[in-house]
Amino acid sequence: MPVEVQMPNFGLSIAEGKIEQWLKKEGDHIEKGDLLVAIVTEKVTVEIPAEIAGTLLRILYPAGATVKVGETIALIGEAGEKADLVRPDVGPALPSASSAAPRLERRELGDLKISPLALKIAQEQGVDIRDVAAKFPGQKIGKKEVFDFIETRKEKTKPPGPPSSTDEEIRPLTGAIRAMAEHMAASSHTAARVTTVAEVYMTELIKLRSALKEKFKKDYDVNLTFVPFALKAIGEGIREFPILNASLRGEEIVLHRSVHVGIAVDAGQNLLVPVVRDVAEKDIVELSRQIQQLTVKARDGKLSLRDIQGGTITLTNAGVYGALLATPIIHQPQSAILWMGKVMETPVARDGQVVIRSMMYLCLSYDHRIIMGAQAVRFLQVVKKSLETPPSPMLPI
Asked: 178-388 architecture in CATH?
C-alpha cells in the first residue's frame, strides 16, 4: 500500500506551505533520506527528505501549489503499485460536494480554452467546467479560475452575518492566526493544565551576567541573557524529575532521554518555537550561541525543519516585554512549559527587614494527566535554586 508524504507541521502559527520545487519526478526510485521536495512558508524554507525508500508513484500537488499542513502531497510505494488510493483535497470544498459534476469529454467542450488540470480539479470538486467558462468568457480556464469560481459560490451560500458597524474592522481568521487559534484551543481541550508559580531571587545571577557579558561579546560574539541559565536550570530539573520531559501518546507515557527545549520567538505575525537540542550536555557559551543563531534564523525566515521539530519541553521569556505573571498554554504533544517574567526590583522581607531585591516570577504549566503536583512543584524548586545560586564567574560555565 502506498505511503503518504504529507505537508509537515512547521510551527505553532504556520497553517500551510507552498511547494517551491519537486526535486524528484514521478517514477523515480528514492532512497530513504533523499531530498524529495522544497517547501516555502512565511518563515521557513526547507527541503523535505523521503522517510522511506521506494518509487515516487504520484505527485498530488504541482510546484506552485499552496497546501495545508497535514495534507498528502505525494505517494511513495513499490514500482507498478496503484497510486490512486488517496485523493487530495486540491481546492476549497463546495458546500454541497455530494453531487458530482458531469464528466465531460474534450470534444464536448467545443472551442473553450480549458487546461487539463482545471478540468480535473473541476471534476473532483463537483463543478461543471462550463459554468466556470461562462463566468470568465473569452479567457483560458486554469486552476485559478476554477478556485475563484468555487470561492464565489461558497460566499453566496454563506448565511448573512450581523451588520458591521462603521467603527469596526473585520478580518478573516486565516493563515497564521487561524493555525495559532486551532493549536491553542486543541491544547486547552486536551491537556489537564495546571499552573504553579515560584518567586526567584535574581540578584546573584544579575551580578554574574554583568561580570561576563563583555567577555561573551568579545570572545564569543554572543549577547549573554538569562535564557541560557534558564535552559541549564531546566536540564537540572529534568535530571531529577524526568516526567517533566515526557509526552502522553495514546495509552503510553513517552519519556524522552534527551532534553530538547523549544524557545518561543516572536517573529512578527508568527510565533515560532525553534529547538535548542541536548540542553543538559551543553555549557552556557554553547547555549548562548545556539539561542542567538536560532533567534536570528527565525526572524529572517531561515529556520530548517529540524530547527523547529523535536522539542520535549518549552521555555518562553515574556519578561522582556514587561510581563509579570501568566498561565502559559502547553505546546502539544509536550507536557510542560516554563514561563519567565520580568526581572525587577521588589521590596521583600529578609531577616525581619524590608529590603529591595531583584526578583522574577517563574510560571510552570504542566499536564496533570501524567505529572503530579508535587513533581511539578519540586521541579520548579530545582530550577529556582539553580537560578538563585549560579556558578562563580571564575568557574567554567
From this structure: 2-Layer Sandwich (3.30)
